[in-house]
Design brief:
Blueprint lengths: L1 H9 L25 H5 L2
Protein name: YhfH family protein
Pfam families: YhfH
Organism: Jeotgalibacillus proteolyticus
Length: 42
Amino acid sequence: MLENVMEFFRNLPPKKCVSCGDKMEEQAEAYGTTCDKCRNSH
């Protein structure tokens, strides 16, 4: 069962910024959907 869960997370697409579409660096405790570049430009 644990292998199925790990496979699921390995197969997720990279997280992308909802504003510009750039790939975001994922962080364990970060739930933001906007990259630093877009967040700082507002």
